[in-house]
Amino acid sequence: MQSAVYKDVDNAGNYDSKAASHAEEMARPGWGEEASRVYESTKERLLTTIGGTKSLLSDIQNFNSSAWTMHYPGLDAASVEQRSSGSNSLHRTVSIDDATAQGVSHAVAANPQEMQVLRLDLKLGASSAHPSALVNSLEKSSIATLLDSRLTKSSQHLDALSTRIKDTSSKVLVTGDLNSGKSTFVNAILRRNVMPSNQLPTTTIFCEVHPVEEHPQKIEQVHLIKSVRDAYSPTDESTFKPYSIDDLEALCEENETNPNPPLLKIYLNDPRAAQNSLLSNGTVSISLIDAPGLNLDTLSTTALFARQEEIDVVVFVLSAENRLTLSAKEFLVQASHEKACVFCVVNGWDRISERNKEKCKKGVLDQLKSISNETWVDREELVHFVDSTNVEADQDADNASRFARLEDSLRNFVLFNRQKSKLAPAARFLTHLLSDVELLSKANVKVADEELEMARNELTRVKPILEMMREKRESLQDELERIENEAVETLGKYTKTEIETALNEIGNGRLATDKVSMPIYEGILSIYPYARAVKHALLQSLDLSVNDIENHVREATGQNVKLVQGVGNDALPEGVDRVKRVFVKEAMFKSRSKANTSTVGMKLSEKPHNLNISPREIFDTTQLLIFKKVGGDKVEEESDEGSFLGALSLAVGAITMVGGKTMGMRGFIEGAVRISNLWGSDRVRQWAAPAVGVLVVGAATYYVFELPRMIPKTIGTSIKKSLESSAEPALSVDAASDSYAEVHQLRVERETRKVLRLASWDVKEKFRATLETHAVECQRAEQGEAKAQRAVEWFDSVCTKVDGLRKLGGLGMTIPTETI
Ligand SMILES: Nc1nc2c(ncn2[C@@H]2O[C@H](COP(=O)(O)OP(=O)(O)OP(=O)(O)O)[C@@H](O)[C@H]2O)c(=O)[nH]1
């Protein structure tokens, strides 16, 4: 048969007062044993559920710190507003304590969208931001930390609940307005004047009366514990200070003004028979707590509230003569929220005249009805009008019987309430906590699902790009090398060809470019400056040709740089910045080292020593002995007829040398030898001296006209010869093994390679960096995917565990999915 006792617990601690009245239920025969049996089995179930929930919380904490930063579901704005502006000022936020307190009440209807136990401690001052805004503004990691501390607190609270469930004794808190007769009532229950009672406020500290059987030595004694919050064990003398029962009054007096009042544990021998004793009657062991009177002193009020968690029954003592004070009302409101029913003792009933008794009774009950309807419904059992000063039959038989009935009701009420005071808070707390865990898990599954989708979308985007780039990496490298090599080779060859062409022109006595003009021949007497000017012009034309080559190479290299960048940019995925380096063509061929410049035969015309003219360059004996007819590029030798002319040129050469400033000893001797040789020849001897004279004059005339044409060729040939030969470079082309053309070819190749390599490096670096970024993004997305996947599975398993724990603990309430 299902009784109201079962219903209390099975319904997750939501006490259903309408199911049956206490009186009705408790009057049923054998209900006590049945209640004890149910109590024991429910207790075991709840203890196992607490163990399972604790390990689940610990798993969540570990997961939160090591694998997944917990997402906290947003607060429901409407309900928060409603709550923060509600009339019940005591309910500021739902805390662990509040949730515990709700274990036996139906005062606060839990909004399934809201966290009850795991709600974060965000202060809701009038000026503070909205809590949902606060939650949203917090860093994810800060929320996870706050949540972690909330989980720790919840776990600790489960420990406290577990201890409380295991504790076989029940605690009865006796409280009420100042001087309402609390101590007198406790004394009446004990049938001993133990607690000091007086007209003046006397009780300022909590006095907890235990049966002497609970004392380790079974002796009457007072244990003074420094603070209500301090740990205490009756077997550990370091946790208390022992006093005699006779010291009690003095101890109370001493601590009257103590801002941190101690707690007194009083071990008393109940002289009454077991069946009459309330302290220890075999079925239930009760501790009576005489509390300080309720007043406006926040400290003691707070202390009182703080202690309510461990008490099973609240006995509220009120004076029949006085109306309830504000603090008493406030306390009753709070206590009825927490305990649903409050046991009320209307004291000083003897002081009310007979004719006022009904009126007084009605007044008290009306007040109670407005504060605690549950108490009013069971008023027959829960509200007692007595005189605590005369409880023995021989004093006042009528009052004694009323008091005896009070004691019976109280004993049964304690027994009855043990279910609610010990098990229901645990059931209620577990219900809320598991709902919160489920809400939290479902919210995290949702977030993890979103992250999973995001990670997968990211992978769908990044992975193909990464693979494409990895595939392209080698071909890009090859392509860049190909462009570089081709450009270097082409421009190198071009340079060589161009310089060779220029040298050929110069070798034929012509300028390599029309940007320069030949000097004007001003007569035989200025032959030397003329030759020098010719050499300058030829070298300058060569220099300008080199300039033209460089300009061409610059342009071509620029095109190749664009090609390189184009290839590189084509290999980059969309959305990535392109290579932006601009090729400054003017910077090409600007060697920083001066020494370098001189080694590559640059600006030959600007180096004075290159303009030195040797006699051979004006009067080249080789040229004269083997007369060469210049006809384009073709040179024909005319050795037969040329011998005479050769002789003639020798003579003219001698004259010109004399006329010029170039005649040296060597030239003179050479000339003389040739003249004497001529004279020795038979053919020549046939010619007479006059002929020689005519010829000399003619030849001289011829040379005067021919010299301006001969000198450029002689000098050009000399320049060409010098620049083509690397063995004895007459000009400043100080290359060890290369000709002038090759030197420039190498130089162009080197410069071109340098520029293109830099451009390639840029492109490759950009490609490498982009590839790396995508690889990192891909790796991050893969990790995110794995993490989110794991979180989805893990939180799903938490929900399954929550269901299992609910079944185990006989708990109800599943949070609908759509509320997240
Ligand atoms: N006539 C009569 N006097 C009572 C009754 N109960 C208490 N008194 C007297 O009321 C006075 C105050 O009683 P206490 O028991 O000290 O009251 P209290 O509520 O414990 O006082 P504080 O601890 O100081 O708040 C004492 O003089 C008691 O004798 C009662 O039922 N009838």
Automatic annotation (TrEMBL):
GO BP annotations listed: mitochondrial fusion; mitochondrion localization
Gene3D superfamilies: P-loop containing nucleotide triphosphate hydrolases
Subcellular location: Mitochondrion outer membrane
PROSITE patterns recorded: G_DYNAMIN_2
Region of interest (Disordered), residue spans: 1-21
Top-level taxonomic group: Eukaryota
Reactions listed under catalytic activity: GTP + H2O = GDP + phosphate + H(+)
A family per Pfam: Dynamin_N
Protein name (record): Dynamin-type G domain-containing protein
Organism: Wallemia hederae
